[in-house]
Amino acid sequence: MNLTKAFKENNSIRLGLQATTWQEAIKLSVEPLIESGAVVEKYYENIIASTEEHGPYYVLMPGMAMPHAMAGDGVNRDAFSLVTLKEPVAFSDGKEVSVLLCLAATSAAIHTSVAIPQIIALFELENSIQRLVDCQSPEQVLAMVEESKNSPYLEGLDLEG
């Protein structure tokens, strides 16, 4: 599972959107994956239910969330989407998020061994959140993903598949 390939195949980069609640923001992040057939509507419902039960466990750093639910449940194929919001939304714990990188994984192994290192690499770029929010086109986001490929987190990973 490769970020660039997933974004292109699923046409799943959406920039400068508006949401008033965290639920709306999650919906916006899952919609491109529903449209591409990577996930079914149930995946969105699973994320909401899981968030209501466990809290927003996927807010990984200030300004950024990686919404996802249990691997495989409602997922047809591995995929990512990236959504930026004009104004941040607050989750139940008060944390505000303006970048959502939705992960759909068919297995837990893909989630931890392939997806997470790529996400860390992207978000360890200096000012990554603000830079992503400032992106005006999917091409600018893809350029940041390309820039992140020099990260030590990605050493030894096969990202061609």
TrEMBL record:
GO molecular function list: kinase activity
GO biological process, one term: phosphoenolpyruvate-dependent sugar phosphotransferase system
Top-level taxonomic group: Bacteria
UniProt keyword annotations, A-Z: Cytoplasm, Kinase, Phosphoprotein, Phosphotransferase system, Transferase, Transport
InterPro entries tied to this protein: Ascorbate-PTS_EIIA_comp, PTrfase/Anion_transptr, PTS_EIIA_type-2_dom
Record GO cellular component, one term: cytoplasm
Protein localization: Cytoplasm
Name of the protein described by the UniProt record: Ascorbate-specific PTS system EIIA component
